[in-house]
Amino acid sequence: xxxxxxxxxxxxxxxxxxxxxxxxxxxxxxxxxxxxxxxxxxxxxxxxxxxxxxxxxxxxxxxxxxxxxxxxxxxxxxxxxxxxxxxxxxxxxxxxxxxxxxxxxxxxxxxxxxxxxxxxxxxxxxxxxxxxxxxxxxxxxxxxxxxxxxxxxxxxxxxxxxxxxxxxxxxxxxxxxxxxxxxxxxxxxxxxxxxxxxxxxxxxxxxxxxxxxxxxxxxxxxxxxxxxxxxxxxxxxxxxxxxxxxxxxxxxxxxxxxxxxxxxxxxxxxxxxxxxxxxxxxxxxxxxxxxxxxxxxxxxxxxxxxxxxxxxxxxxxxxxxxxxxxxxxxxxxxxxxxxxxxxxx
Length: 345
Known about the structure:
Oligomer: single chain
Strand content: 5-15%
Pfam families: LacI, Peripla_BP_3
CATH topology of the largest domain: Rossmann fold
Radius of gyration: 26 Å
Organism: Puia dinghuensis
Keywords: DNA-binding, Transcription, Transcription regulation
GO molecular function, one term: DNA-binding transcription factor activity
Protein name: LacI family transcriptional regulator
């Protein structure tokens, strides 16, 4: 069965005996139209079920008032907080959001970028998937001078603004804290080192070891997908190590992973922090719930989202060039809780 035909301004004009131009201005609350006439137009439009086709109107102005977003996952508290920050700023500016989810794959990220381009988004905010190397799927945006802001997971790309934290510094602070607590064999559990966030945290980890006179052991760097199953495997791997080789400190680059890892250690009769001190990353809610509470790096996702959105809106308003390659660095900080208070005298 066919749906009912949409009501147009021409239908309203016929009912009221007015010109379509007058109805159009009245619906926009134009002061040139008598206030009583405006009220008649509004009331009739409401009674007839008229819906404004702002999309078509915006297309005529080469604008859709929509912003595309590509994220690598949706279950993350960090990503949720970034989206909240973006939504807060863009809603105030009158923009709608279309969100694409890459599920950590380059192929799906490229498909999302293609779809958003053809939906004529005015701008794009994106965080890259684990395996994204080829940035060709962003070329149509470059060619049309559509602004892009990359956040968190970024790549060297001669277009677009980047919004990040200093991951090198954060990795250094997490590792230095464990070393200052007396840890001498510090493991680092991380993800795909081809991604900037994990590569930079590893550099900070390595520099802190060197500054505290601790040797770097590649066997203590565990790279996985940061899933719950991977956390359990990593904990069991460490529990199985003979005592001289077992780490006495662990810097894990994700709070959910760190919490599962911590719980698995406890189930294996490994004490935290007495036997192994742990530092996570992100300051997710789980860090305050797990026992002992988790020391972590505070990663202000909402602020990152707000900054990314503001940067994009400035470019859309012509206040800065769409081809800018600026990097905006958001402040992070170490939050010390019981999971790392391991000090050996």
